[in-house]
Amino acid sequence: MNIKNQFKEGLITNNPVLVQQIGMCATMAITTSLFNGLGMGLSVLIILTCCNVVVSMIRKIIPEEIRLAIFVVVIAGFVTIVDLLLQAFIPALSEALGVFIPLIVVNCIIIGRAEAFCQKNTVAASFFDGIFQGLGYTLVLLAMSIVRELLGKGTFGGGLIDVSNGFHLTMDGSGAGITIFSGEYGAKVLTMPFGGFLTLGVLIALMQYALKKSAKKKELAARAAEEEKEVEE
C-alpha cells in the first residue's frame, strides 16, 4: 500500500471526474452553489469510503456470479443511511440535492472502485482509496460550484455563508453568501444546465493539458538522464 500514490491518483492522475470522466451527471446538475457542491461531495466521500471498506472485507466470500448485485446492495444500504441522516439533520441540503442522493446507488465512481480496486486489495488500502477518490471528487465539485456561482450570480458561499448579521456559517441553506458583484452582471448561462457542461469541459481540458505537460517533462528528463549516462560510459 502506497498512500502517497493513492493520494496523487485520487486528486490528480486518476481523478474520478477530470481523468476517469465518470459520475458526471450529478457533477453538472448540482454545482450551482457552494452549499450543494460541498454537501454532495462529502456525501459521496462518506458513502464511497464505507462501501470500499465493506466490499474489501467480504471480497473473498462474494460469489463471482453475483458480485455486482452484492456491490449495489452494499452501496444502497449506505446511501439510504446518508439520505435519512440528511433528511433528519440537514433537510435543506436533502431538498436541494433531491433525487441525486438516491442516484448515488448507481454512481459509476462507487461501483467502479468496488469492481476495480476493493475486491482486489486490503481493507486499509480500500479505506484510503475511498478517502482520496472521494476527496478528488469533492474538490472538483467545489471548483465547479465556486466558478458557476461566482461568475453566474456574483456571490461566493451561497447557502453556506450568511453575512446579514455578521459572518457565520449556516446549514439550513438560507445564507445568501458573500456578494462579490451585482448578479445582474453575472453570466446567467453558467447557472443553467449548459453552464455545467461548459465549466466541466474547461476543467477537464485544463487537467488533460497539465497531465500531458507533466508527462512530457518527465519524458525529456528521462531522455536527458539516459543521454548523460551514455556519455559517461
Task: Describe the overall structure.
By secondary structure, the chain is mostly helical. The protein has one domain (3-232). The chain has helices spanning 3-13, 24-30, 34-58, 67-89, 91-97, 108-116, 123-153, 193-232, and strands at residues 155-156, 161-162, 168-169, 178-179. The protein has a two-stranded antiparallel ribbon with strand order 1-4. Strands 2-3 form a two-stranded antiparallel ribbon. Strand 2 and strand 3 form a beta hairpin. Helix 1 (3-13) packs parallel to helix 7 and helix 3 runs antiparallel to helix 4 (67-89). The longest helix is centred in the C-terminal third of the chain and has 40 residues, at 193-232. The two termini are 37 Å apart.
Which features would summarize this protein structure in a list?
mainly alpha; 4 strands; 66% helix; flat
Q: What is Rg? A: 21 Å
What distance separates the N and C termini? Answer: 37 Å
**Helical stretch count?**
8
How does the helix and strand content classify structurally? mainly alpha
Name the poorly predicted regions.
Answer: none
Globally, the shape reads: flat
**Extended strand count:** 4
- Could you estimate the helical fraction of the residues in percent? 55-70%
Total count of domains: 1
Major sheet characteristics: 2 strands, antiparallel
Global mean pLDDT:
90
Strand order, sheet with most strands: 1-4
What string gives the helices and strands in order? Answer: HHHHHHHEEEEH
Strand share of the residues?
A: under 5%
